Amino acid sequence: MTAATSSNTSPASANGSVLLTLMKLRTFIALFAVIIFFAIFAPNFTSTANMILMSKHVALNAFLAMGMTFVIITGGIDLSVGSIVGLCGMVAGGLILYGIELPIGYTIYFNLFEIVFITLSIGLLIGLINGLLITKLNVAPFIATLGTLYIARGLALLSSDGQTFPNLVGRPEYATTGFDFFGAGRIFGLPVSIWILIVLALLAAYVARSTPIGRHIFAVGGNERAARMSGIRVDLVKIFVYMFSGLCAAIVGVIISSELMASHPATGESFELNAIAAAVLGGTSMSGGRGTIGGTIIGAFVIGILSDGLVMMGVSSFWQMVIKGLVIIIAVVVDQAQRRLQQRVTLMQMAKAG
């Protein structure tokens, strides 16, 4: 009887393990599928110029998705990143063009390095506010970040009365020239934004894998109560991930304004949706406790290639929204199926060992 049970369990366990492996590799499979599909059906998809352009688009989503990954791993969500992009772009544009006017009749102008530093600090500050709302005032992440979404977008609109800050060429006497380097500059043939993404992705992956804060992020998402009882400073961990998410959004705001050499208060609308989609597609669990930076980057490539490929094929923007929505739903469904299958395979292996 025991031998028969083991014989029946082994094939089922093996089949489950194969299916589980395929589910874990779903992002790679999806990336390979969309590349092959658009290489066949989209004109000039594989051209060098188009690949570089797509990489720049992917980089913008990847920045946001990295920050979103850390937030979702802790069991939270950050809906404010798109508005932070818009606000930080307006801050950078306003400082370049007008500086800061003081009530006493003087105007302070900052050099380019200081402008970028101030802009990134704004992203960190909004992330800090999100973290404090969630940890100290016990506001649900969805509500807290929804509120800061509206506040940041409103401030972006108020900063220019809804108008664009154009021609951000800067002034040599104030050392504000060269802003276009971040969006249009190249190093060894690759856009600067790609190099920034590589550096930040490597840093984020190192933090997630090899530092105490990285382990604490996963512990908080896996079981917040157990993490708190084990001595992990849960509140600080949550504040850290929201500040990192705000920083990533600020970087995107700088890059977009630099690329366009203009700042518009509506920049970044719905960017948070693409970031969530990339993170989930990359294997980040919406229930928290699981996710990787590498998977998120691949997920960002899938979303970016899908968007650009559909545009090249002339697909309506309305249908693009439908397709992206389906991708998110499918990714979540597969994630839930993977969790159930993982539990089943584990139980089978335990039964076999017993």
TrEMBL record:
The keyword Transmembrane applies. The chain crosses the membrane at residues 27-46, 58-77, 83-100, 112-133, 187-208, 239-256, 317-334. GO terms for cellular component: plasma membrane. Its EC number is 3.6.3.17. It is found in: Cell membrane. The keyword Membrane applies. It comes from the Bacteria. GO terms for molecular function: hydrolase activity; transmembrane transporter activity. This is Ribose transport system permease protein.
